[in-house]
Amino acid sequence: MNPFARIIPSTAVAAIAMLALSGCDKVTETLPPPTGTDTIPTIQQGVYGRVYFWEGDFMPVVPPAPPRGTITPVQRTLVVHTPTRFDSVEQVNYSAFYRRILTQRIGTTASNSAGFFQIPLAPGRYSFFVVEDSLFYANGGDGLGFLLPVTVVQDSLTRLDINITYKATF
Q: Which CATH number describes the domain made up of 26-169?
């Protein structure tokens, strides 16, 4: 019998147990629920969602440890560009902040006090950026180099929740 046959299953069980105890599912529980009609889209086609600011320590802990970070819906200005890759921005060091975006700006919108935003857009692909002071912030990509991309389909809405995480530890 293979001497590792008993080790591998117990290792897999330990890994699953660590994931279950890590508290990762607690992050979604701390997101504020939508409130009232200020988070319901009124557009027929385009992008809508919420903007959240994450601050604090989100490192996994063994429950029942209290949350050590906060997730708050925030008001921010959002800028929409044609699909934007890393080679079309001036990045600040190796961060998720950018000084300039060299692609065409399509539009601008803002989130309300519940973090909710919406913007009507024609069918196509776009990149979203959050204005933080004098810089642009985008902390996600599609694996092909496009920053915070989203696709709009004819006569439909696309949901995009934006997480601002530069003051959070994971």
A: 2.60.40.10
